[in-house]
Write a structure and sequence with these properties.
- The protein has 2 domains: about 170 residues, no CATH class; about 90 residues, no CATH class.
- The protein is about 50% helix and about 10% strand.
- The chain is built from 12 helices and 6 strands.
- A hairpin with a 7-residue loop joins strand 3 and strand 4.
- The chain is globular and about 50 Å long.
Length: about 280
């Protein structure tokens, strides 16, 4: 039987595999849960962002008691921003919803609709379900911009902004953010098992951030946006979704990808890393 690194090396160049690599998700997550149990004593049932950041499986969890069908079915929990670490995010301009705000706005409804959109692709929602244990709900910076992020040291948590009131295409935007951050988590687990990019001082222009980024940073961007492009391609004929919005996003991503084609020749990429980037660029061309 192939070990994890070998399985990843087989899947990466295989055009029959979806770019979110559903055939790898289970073994990647099982490997990480085994590590967390050994190092911290955390298992899926006791996981929380606060416990990960403190490295302590015994501290209280701030899991919101919010009942919503999609979240409950997928075992995705809304986790409050613990005051002991949330202040650092607030200093950076990241604002979290309170429980009352979440319960008395359209936030949960929008998240539920976003998960329903992702569920139209069974293999993708299965990967989201496996990789996301805690979801933190953020207030968007303004009506025109979404905010989402994840942290490599918090392997099963994502942070996603959601509007208080429903706006056109909000569920699509949240669905994209959820998939985006989930894929960051997945790629981090892949990198832990198989070297794709070596440490390097090289910097590359990122059309997404309009700034120079590290090789690893651009690798992650190329991956997640290739997945988003493929995800949206699968939704183009979905009833009830705006094909105009989807096509505009796909075109935007194609244009951005066209600006990073030279990254395929980056010397920091390992041989399998070059094949990985080549496949992602091909998917979104």
């Amino acid at each position: 039987m192939l070990d994890l690194a070998d399985r990843i090396a087989v899947s990466i160049p295989d055009p029959r595999c979806e770019p979110w690599f559903p055939e790898l998700t289970e073994c990647l997550t099982l490997h990480e849960w085994k590590r967390l149990r050994k190092d911290i004593g955390i298992v899926p049932e006791t996981y929380s962002t606060a416990r990960m950041l403190r490295g302590n499986a015994l501290i209280p969890r701030d899991i919101e008691s919010l009942e919503y069908a999609s979240l409950k079915t997928l075992n995705i929990r809304i986790e409050a921003a613990h005051h002991q670490w949330a202040d650092s995010y607030r200093i950076a301009g990241v604002r979290f919803y309170s429980t009352d705000e979440i319960e008395n706005t359209a936030v949960l409804e929008c998240i539920g609709d976003a998960l329903s959109i992702i569920s139209q692709i069974p293999s993708l929602i299965s990967s989201v379900q496996a990789l996301v244990r805690s979801l933190h709900v953020l207030k968007p910076p303004d009506s025109d911009h979404d905010l989402s992020f994840s942290e490599p040291q918090i392997p099963f948590s994502i942070f996603v902004s959601v509007f208080e009131e429903r706006v056109p295409n909000d569920a699509l935007r949240v669905a994209e953010a959820i998939v985006h951050e989930t894929m960051h988590l997945q790629l981090t687990l892949i990198e832990q098992a198989l070297a794709i990019v070596e440490p390097s001082r090289c910097k590359h222009f990122s059309p997404w951030r309009r700034e120079m980024r590290s090789s690893r940073g651009l690798l992650h961007a190329v991956y997640v946006f290739s997945v988003i492009h493929h995800f949206l391609s699968r939704l183009i004929s979905s009833e009830g979704l705006s094909s105009k919005f989807i096509e505009a996003r796909r075109s935007e991503i194609v244009n951005q990808m066209s600006q990073v084609g030279a990254f395929e020749q980056c010397q920091a990429l390992t041989p399998i890393g070059r094949r990985f980037v080549s496949r992602m660029l091909t998917l979104s061309s």
